Amino acid sequence: MAGHVNGIRQGIGMTSARTRERLARRLADQGIRSRDVLEQIRNVPRHLFVDEALASRAYEDTALPIGHGQTISQPYVVARMTEALLDGGRLDSVLEIGTGCGYQTAVLAPLVKRIYSVERIPELLRRTRQRLRDLDIYNVQFRPGDGWRGWPKYAPYDGIIVAAAADEVPQKLLEQLAVGGRMVIPVGPPGRQELLLVSRLSDRYEEVSLGAVSFVPLVPGT
Ligand code: SAH
Questions:
Q1: Rounded to 5 degrees, what are φ and ψ at 89?
Q2: Which residues form the domain of 155?
Q3: Taking 60 as the threshold, does the pLDDT of residue 1 lie above it?
Q4: What is the pLDDT of residue 122?
Q5: In this structure, what CATH number is given to the domain that contains residue 76?
Q6: pLDDT tens-digit map of 148-200
Q7: Which residue of the set 16, 34, 56, 73 is catalytic?
């Protein structure tokens, strides 16, 4: 994928592969260990996921606006969540809640078999579908809808990744997680959110905190 992307959109200055390499090194310094994840940070052209006016800031390790009051997640957080999700071994099916501009989706897509991605703002989803197609990513199925309900049709999922913060882990998502599966989800009110890793064991769920984070809220309903 990377070769193709670099080929058709030769980066200039702040959007070049060299800039992405710098970002990947910074994330490694901050503790990201997964080679696959760092490789994806190098591959995915984040500047194509934000407005052209912000492209020069795309490789700063920061969240940026993507319209509709939403943000593209900070690269460190995307890397950390992806690493935590993949840590338990190979994942066939992953449910993603909060597609947004699709950066997280693009980072994860080559590392799993199939992603099912739910987003409540249809206009965002329309542009994201096209963007991922332009990047030759085809193993993602999208759906406009309410992430609190998950996507029952393809459940259970080996992995669930949620890009917006809920007050509590949505019950439907717990139900749609396969036994042996893992969910990464920010939980808590603004200013006091933490990233949780929820594992489903044969007879119970186990929660581990991965630290403090700051996400837009997982809006109730659509
Ligand atoms: N994954 C994105 C980050 C998106 S920000 C990235 O890689 O940058 C969070 C997204 O969650 C927003 O697009 C927002 O519209 C969406 N969202 C919020 N509440 C939702 C809900 N209940 N169901 C589905 N999507 C939701």
A1: 115, -175
A2: 65-213
A3: no
A4: 96
A5: 3.40.50.150
A6: 999 999 999 999 999 999 999 999 999 999 999 999 999 999 899 999 999 99
A7: 73
- The pLDDT of residue 88: 86
Nearest CA owner, ligand 1 atom 8: 72
Q: Find the 82 Cα to ligand 1 centroid distance in Å.
A: 16
For 124-157, what is each residue's pLDDT tens digit?
A: 999 999 999 999 999 999 999 999 999 999 999 9
62-67: Cβ within 8 A, 24+ apart: 63/214, 66/100, 66/101, 66/124, 67/124
Question: H-type helices in 1-139, by residue range?
Answer: 2-8, 17-29, 35-43, 75-86, 103-108, 122-134
Say yes or no: CB of residue 163 within 6 Å of ligand 1: yes
Atom of ligand 1 minimally distant from the CA of 107: 7
Query: Atom 2 of ligand 1 has which residue's CA nearest to it?
Result: 100
Q: Does residue 50 belong to any structural domain of this protein?
A: no
Tokens 């947004």 identify what position? 100
Active site residue 202: no
Distance CA 198, CA 169 (A): 9
What is the reported pLDDT for 220?
86
Instruction: Count how many domains the chain has.
Output: 1
Quick check: is 95 in a domain? Answer: yes
How far apart CA 26 and CA 133 sit, in angstroms, is 29
Structure tokens at 196: 């949780």
Asked if residue 30 belongs to a domain, the reply is no
